[in-house]
Fold each of these.
Amino acid sequence: MSSQADLIVGLQWGDEGKGKIVDHMAQEYDYVCRFAGGHNAGHTIVVGDKKYALHVMPSGILNPNAKNIVGNGVVLSPKDFIKEMEQFEALEGRLFISDKAHLLLPYHALIDQARERLKGKKAIGTTGKGIGPAYGDKVARVGHRVGELLAPAKLTLKIMEFFETNRAIFEAMDIEFPIQEQLLDELSEFKKVLSPFIVDTTLLLWEVLDGGKRVLLEGAQGTMLDIDHGTYPYVTSSSTVSAGACIGLGINPKDIGKATGIAKAYCTRVGNGPFPSEDLGEQGELLRTKGHEFGTTTGRPRRCGWFDAVAMRHALRINGVDQIALMKLDVLDGFSEVKVCVAYHKDGKTFDYVPYDLEGVEPQYRSFAGWDRCEGIQNFDKLPQNAQDYIHALEEIVGAKINIISTSPQREDTILR
Ligand code: GDP
Ligand code: IMO
Ligand code: MG
């Protein structure tokens, strides 16, 4: 009997706590599959006193029984991924990388950084990892795929040729040409390490689903960073929403079962771009300190603010979410007042949806009484009454069930309702 794959997707601007939930759920799945993004993502998983920062490796890797797929929708930097692999043992047979995933090579990062420099004040605030240029090459049909690593001599020639045809651009950006022999050595080394893992993951996944195995699809980033549905151009370069799972893995919409959207009990964003419910005052600072809101990938301080119900409704509809996992509720412990942005105002108009241009919108808040402490609580009924009321109110405002609540970084501090 065939099965459907369940899905995890970020509902805000990334860093919602996807890693913790995928790890928590991975115990119940045979396969965990990443479908988009690259090593711009940083998924933190805490098990006991050990902390793992995963970038491209699916968060199922910490469960010895789960197999892990890096899908074709991912952009893969072999050098960085090999470093990430070194944290884990015995990966053969439980890690599979799509031959159709696109390669992210060092020049992509150099182009990313050069573009950001040239943009000056208008910079996107990317992670500088080369994500935009790698996806750009894919769409412009001048990218290289992971499968090409299996023939390093041929790939070397193609990359040298690519540099030659784009000589003017590389020179203008002050990017050095690779030395052919060195490039060949490097690509040959990548082949040596990665070739046991490179397969047609689409066929594999079809087989796995047809065989009735339990599959979890792991998104990266968040809905508001989606290339089409986020705050363009202040977005990442991939389809971060649930539909991206189909494209990024080669499955169809009917293959998808239950979708869980991950959201923080407040909001954060790294990098530039509109963020209507940002709190630039003391409260925002307090959220940052209490929530340790510093990027997993770049260490940058995250901008902090209140739960944005307008952006949330947008995200819930786009992703087809069945339930929300509300993360980091404990970070709101001790606040006397907790706010939720319920509408935007601009030019005398009220918006209960995300308008085309978010620039200059003013958030309209509803206020809730705070609570003392919910850190580490594992049972809904044991949460302080005001925290329970906050959750019930959020469910009503956004029109979705909050079935999972997280009260600390630890696996077990997770309330299932
Ligand atoms: P991801 O990118 O969505 O996987 O999220 P990140 O790992 O970048 O950021 C989430 C951070 O919050 C990590 O440091 C987690 O360990 C931490 N975290 C997750 N859930 C909770 C929670 O319920 N409470 C607290 N205090 N921290 C949490
Ligand atoms: P996870 O999976 C938060 C942001 C960057 C920048 C924009 C574009 O950990 O939630 P990019 O390097 O992708 O071209 O940068 O997207 N960004 C993220 N913000 N969490 C992430 O991933 C992010 N990945 C990219 O900060 O604003
Ligand atoms: Mg993150």
Amino acid sequence: MKSLDALRESHLTSIAAASSHDELEVARLAAFGRKSGEISQRLSQLGKMDPEQRREIAPRLNHIKNELQQAISAKKSEIEEREIEEQIGQEWTDITLPGRYRAEGTIHPVSQVTEEVIAIFADLGFEVAEGPQIESDWYNFDALNIPPEHPARQEHDTFFIQNSDSDTGQPNVLRTHTSPVQIRAMNAAKPPMRIIAPGRVYRCDYDQTHTPMFHQIEGLAIDTDISMAHLKWTLEEFCCAFFEVEKAELRFRASHFPFTEPSAEVDLRCSWEQGRLKVGEGSDWLEILGSGMVHPNVLKAGGIDPDNWQGFAFGIGIDRLAMLKYGIPDLRAFFESDIRWLRHYGFRPLDVPSLHGGLSR
Ligand code: DAH
């Protein structure tokens, strides 16, 4: 049997040699393991010794036991400390690096409002439709019941394009409104249908409230028994959602558009308090859009039989909506690409319009 000194020596050496928790555990079990630990075994033998022998061995053995336990816990702390040091060494941060990059730009109010309008009409079952910005004279005018001699043509301040349409030989134009998308949508699908068409339009005009390029959104709903009442309800729903108010009162003013019969311009009840618009109350009226029941000639041009189908249509100026909702006084600044203006009126990229979130928050 090993002498107590040799026992002490060999266990202290293997504890000192351990360089990980696993190795330390092996060394600990060699000494104190319940069955095969050498110190445990010696301790259990004490009971069988005669009293004289025990009196001599027991204190020495206990002393060795304490010494080894202290050595184990000291080694354990040493290994833990070293592990922390290693971890810190790997997870360092260079505080001299520049801060995280912040995007310079923001979402343009026109984009924001377009998304808002689309979200509202999508909720009412309207699909988004598109058409080209360079449009044939036929789609922009004739198909919309505006024949060449019609005075409405003059009102549109049209930009003509030198290359004419290769099929018809007619001049091409920069579309003066989004209404031609009505015809394209009718050609592309069968009724019943509900579409909205947002996009750029062009007219040769420039002052505080007019720019040569601006944005409209067209709406069209066709079914067998659609009336002005459906139009009014739809527009009221839209105004409540868009201006984020409980109640919106609309006034239909008789008007004339060649592509609708009857036609109405729609005003919204509002008040101006210290230059800020309040919708739904007050004694002012704000003109916000043109609308009406689709003219039978327009349905025909779209390939739809006006004896079986009818519908309503409307056209809204998106830029004007943005000016009203967000208190922007001058339309021209929308297109001057001044980053300071955008920082003031723009929207953070994560402010995605949604009906449940409140559109603009
Ligand atoms: N296209 C018209 C414009 O640019 C707006 C408009 C009025 C569109 C009445 C419509 C409508 O669809 O029914 O002035």
